[in-house]
Recover the amino acids of this structure.
């Protein structure tokens, strides 16, 4: 397990190398929740940062197939500033926004601020 800051930093330093190392792989990372709810596509997401009041470094997309109701139920327990441990597939590093996107994520545990 590693901090989202470490993975994000590798993409900023050498995107090609980081893509070979991380894309398509299931990673477990630590991050702080900035927000939790529905994305603009109505999928359940958590925006994550390296610290409780930092900038968004990652978007964690929870399952939205037949498990969408359970995913939204799980998001109700996530508060801004909470430390999270998240497991999910690293899918992309968005162009322009410099934000990692993880899909099919599981919130493994949460801790207080």
């Amino acid at each position: 397990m590693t901090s989202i800051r470490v993975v994000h930093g590798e993409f900023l330093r050498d995107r090609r190398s980081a893509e070979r190392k991380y894309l398509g792989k299931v990673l477990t990372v630590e991050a702080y929740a900035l927000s939790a709810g529905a994305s603009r596509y109505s999928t359940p997401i958590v925006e994550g940062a390296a610290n409780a009041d930092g900038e968004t470094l990652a978007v964690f997309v929870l399952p939205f197939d037949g498990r969408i109701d359970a995913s939204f139920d799980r998001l109700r327990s996530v508060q801004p500033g909470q430390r999270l441990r998240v497991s999910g597939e690293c899918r992309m590093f968005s162009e322009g926004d410099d934000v990692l996107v993880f899909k099919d994520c599981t919130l493994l545990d949460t801790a207080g601020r």
In short: Residues 26 and 89 are 4 Å apart (CA to CA). Residues 4-13 form the longest helix (10 residues).
